[in-house]
Amino acid sequence: MSLLQAQPLKVINVGLESFDAAIRAAGGDSVHVEWRPPAPVDAGVLAVIARHTERIEAANQEAVARLQKAQPVLIDMGVARDLIPGMADDLLLHAGPPITWDRMCGPMRGAMIGAVLYEGGADTPEAAEALLAGGRYRFAPCHEHQAVGPMAGVVSASMPVFVVENKTYGNRAFCTQNEGLGKVLRYGAYAPEVVTRLKWMADTLYPALQAAIRATGGIDLKNMIAQALHMGDEVHNRNRAGTSLFLRAVTPALVRSVPDRDTVAEVIEFINGNDHFFLNLSMPACKASLDPVRDITDSSMVVAMARNGTDFGIQLAGTGSAWFTGASLVPDALFFAGYTKDDANPDIGDSTITETGGLGGFAIAAAPAIVQFVGGSARDALHYTLEMYEIALDENGVFQIPALDFRGTPTGINAVRVVERGIVPFLDTGVAHKKAGVGQVGAGVVTAPMDPFVRAVEGLAATFSTN
Question: Number of structural domains, the chain?
Fold first, then answer.
């Protein structure tokens, strides 16, 4: 005791960071060790997982190898009903896990109303809502039809979609064109100007881009994403570099393929004025990269994370098409003037496919400006990415972060590690107003809830009793 009293006090603080702050405030020398208790999973479930560790690890090696080998290429555009498997005139696709009309949040309902108006199924929002509530339309997740959609993610039959092909495995993924920010369909707005913009995108933007993309012979999205990371994007909530690179790649073909100069100018001006245009390319690029990983028996790797504004759902490679869900959380955000967190809908959208593929919040160290949304710093951005390595299976061989000495992004979420280490995926996101028709009210960050991962690990453990 006398030796301890004769030396300066040095403390290793484990757990609550507030204890560390108190020690430092009192003049103590303290090192804080971040630690969280594991998620509350039944001991029997963890025992099953432990008994099959070798099988899980072998399956995960195969899963992450397939993801690393993916080569997503933008090859074409077309109309949803002609390209998306199972698409029909009475089917409306949406973001997130399955949901019924009675449980849909405000922005999801608003986007559904807007889609019906766009398709000419009704003349007024009230009439559209009556049809939707009355069973005239069927609803299904984008993910169950090889597609993804940001925010509400609503896709209707006549909407144009991008076609992204994974050249390594031959599978395809689809996504609509990005409308821009603010009062747009994907945020639940359905005013006349929203529908008018969608019509222009179908009648003018789509044919021009389709011709240009075909003329390029295909655009390598994986290489483009890698470049965007070096230029300050994380290709989820910041896409300025990706959009610029895409415009640079497509403009010569656009000029040569579209004879009307005014149309070319309109298309270039629209894309140039919409920094988020590339989001609707990075998403299907990640979807196409992850889909070949599905149905790898025994794997605990996450192949989809998605939110419908009510539920947050995930799917694992080793549990087939099953969804594991929990309540979606409200983001911490920088809100537009006049709005607060009380106006925000819980997190929504398929755009977390970017984090699932090792981008977005997992690569936020490449785009530190995003954490300024919630008063954070560049140091915080580094911290978030470094923490994600704790739950990742690998480091990406192509997607690199300059601020981490070009270390590969954390890639391949291991649901078992999420549960064992008590660390959930970090996400950045846009924020929709909770009422239908309003639109976007901010942007910020959020974490995934733990419940879906607990349920997924329980689901994975259950498979070992049957194989």
Answer: 3
* Claim to verify: residue 126 and residue 264 sit in the same structural domain: yes
**pLDDT of 16 higher than 70:** no
Query: What gap in Å lies between CA 324 and CA 303, rounded to an integer?
Result: 12
- Of the three residues 254, 285, 316, the one that is the final residue of a domain is 285
The tokens 């560790």 sit on which residue?
Answer: 53
Residues 22 and 60 in one domain: no
In this prediction, residues 208-214 reach a mean pLDDT of 98
Structure tokens at 423: 């660390």
Take residue 256 and report the two structure tokens written for it: 């040569």
Task: Kindly indicate the confidence band of residue 376, based on its pLDDT and cuts at 50, 70 and 90.
Answer: confident
Question: Which is it for strands 72-79 and 160-166: parallel, antiparallel or unpaired?
Answer: antiparallel
Alpha-carbon Rg for the chain, nearest whole angstrom, is 23
Categorize the per-residue pLDDT at 43 as very low, low, confident or very high, splitting at 50, 70 and 90.
confident
Residue 46: φ, ψ to 5°: -65, -35
Element (H, E) at 110: helix 106-119
Q: Token match 């073909």: residue?
A: 253
User: Would you call 181 exposed, middle or buried from its count of C-beta atoms within 10 A (0-12, 13-18, 19+)?
Assistant: middle
Q: Residue 93 maps to which CATH number?
A: 3.90.1710.10
Element (H, E) at 348: strand 348-349
Q: How is residue 317 written in tokens?
A: 């490679």
Continuous segment of H or E residues that includes residue 332: strand 332-335
Dist. CA 139–CA 152, nearest whole Å: 12
Average predicted confidence (pLDDT) for the chain: 93
Considering the domain architecture, whether residues 433 and 366 belong to the same structural domain is answered as yes
Instruction: For strands 10-14 and 29-33, give the pairing.
Output: parallel
Identify which of 379, 327, 378, 384 has the alpha carbon closest to the alpha carbon of residue 355.
384
Note the Cα 144 to chain centre separation in Å: 15
Asked whether residue 38 is assigned to any structural domain, the reply reads no
Print the domain residue range for 80: 70-285
**Rounded to 5°, angle at Cα 80 from 79 and 85:** 130
